[in-house]
Design brief:
This protein is mainly alpha-helical. The protein has 15 helices and no strands. The mean pLDDT is about 85. Its main location: membrane.
């Protein structure tokens, strides 16, 4: 069986370059933020982005995640994609209208005018990014690197340009939020044009197909929500126990450590459609390549994490600024957490292929619960290191339980 290793290598190389350029966005903007804004302002920006992560599975019902698997198993792909984007449109517009009615007409939230506008902006921002991410997953499956690159890089470029311009004129965290929103709005507008231009994708609601999509994606709502707790709940604990200024410092080191996700995400973008397609063709034969690839992948992210750890002091000294420096134990814990996250993201594809999305949701719930408990006890005692250590322990537990579940599947198949 020829599994087209050359195709995987070319896609991995392409996604790595694209993600490298895209990942430069927060790192280019980061020193501009630290030079022009206070750590308190950066903490507020972090709370904005964190809120969007928690709302995404609620508004989008994780429908776009189904593209990663169902795209390869549903025969009428064009009909399926039409139903997916129709649902995103209905859910996004409906959520935006409800947020307007809730904040202004019914005044559900006791907020001032600026905060009401921010709530609506967050909901609409989530809607825009559902369109963008759904389109990008589709292009990955189609192995259409050209359109993937255009959308991903143009959005990143707009974000950088707008942030630089506005932050040079106004020392206010609102301009950073405005830049994030504007780049997403223009990108989603362009995607809308591309979808309308492609006459094969139409406005369509099919109850039978929609039911199949929801059966697959509904457990992922809980999975994504709990996964966001694991990744971002510590922000709220830090803000409450240590203050927004300390949250700003944590946000900076978290973004710096996220450079490790470049390798993880780049590989995942190329690997996931490659894995799903070939598992559907020859599951038993492809597992030989799967296990061999995992060994090289694990070693690569381990070496990458070690390199980042040793150059981190130089990044603080020459790029971010000493005012935001934290103890090395904090970024050691975060980088180690990313390592186990990388192992998890590679192997969890097996559960997605087996359509064990309920198991995935349970895994996320367990790790999220552990993370909340550890944050509650460790942040008041150990400060920022407590948050980082809680993240590390949670990912170790998550990966360990995943391996146990995969062992069970393997034994059942024998």
């Amino acid at each position: 069986m020829n599994f087209k290793k050359k195709s995987l290598f070319l896609n991995f190389s392409g996604y790595t370059i694209i993600n490298l350029l895209n990942s430069l966005t927060p790192f280019i903007i980061l020193p501009i933020l630290t030079w022009n804004l206070s750590s308190n302002d950066i903490g507020v920006i972090d709370l904005f982005t964190t809120s969007t992560f928690f709302l995404t599975p609620i508004i989008g019902l994780c429908i776009i995640q189904s593209i990663s698997k169902l795209y390869f198993t549903i025969e009428n792909r064009k009909k399926y994609i039409s139903v997916v984007f129709t649902c995103i449109l209905i859910l996004g517009v409906g959520s935006t209208l409800l947020s307007i009615l809730g904040t202004y007409t019914f005044n559900i939230f006791d907020l001032n005018t600026d905060k009401k506008q921010l709530v609506i902006l967050i909901v609409f921002y989530v809607f825009l990014n559902l369109i963008i991410e759904g389109f990008l997953i589709l292009k990955r499956n189609e192995e259409n690197l050209k359109q993937f690159a255009i959308i991903r890089l143009s959005k990143a470029g707009l974000d950088i340009i707008l942030s630089i311009i506005f932050l040079s004129l106004y020392n206010n965290y609102n301009v950073r939020i405005f830049s994030l929103f504007s780049s997403s709005f223009l990108s989603a507008l362009f995607i809308g044009y591309l979808l309308l231009k492609d006459k094969s994708i139409t406005f369509l609601v099919d109850k039978k197909l929609l039911n199949k999509i929801l059966i697959y994606s509904s457990p992922l709502i809980l999975h994504t929500f709990f996964n966001n707790i694991l990744n971002y709940a510590d922000r709220y604990f830090i803000n409450d126990y240590l203050g927004t200024a300390q949250l700003g410092k944590y946000s900076v080191i978290y973004q710096l450590c996220m450079v490790m996700s470049l390798l993880i995400t780049s590989f995942s973008m190329a690997w996931t459609p490659y894995f799903m397609k070939n598992m559907a063709i020859d599951k038993k034969g492809f597992m030989i390549i799967f296990n061999k690839t995992f060994k090289y992948y694990s070693l690569s992210i381990l070496i990458f994490g070690i390199i980042i750890y040793f150059i981190m002091p130089l990044i603080y000294k020459f790029y971010v600024g000493e005012d935001y420096k934290v103890e090395n134990t904090i970024y050691l814990a975060l980088l180690s957490g990313y390592f186990f996250q990388g192992l998890y993201r590679f192997k969890v594809n097996q559960l997605f292929f087996e359509e064990k999305t309920g198991w995935i949701a349970s895994l996320s719930f367990i790790s999220a619960l552990i993370n909340i408990i550890l944050n509650f006890y460790l942040i008041p005692k150990w400060g920022l290191f407590g948050a980082a250590f809680a993240t590390l322990v949670s990912y170790i537990v998550l990966y360990t339980i995943l391996e146990l579940l995969l062992s069970k599947i393997l034994n059942d198949d024998l």
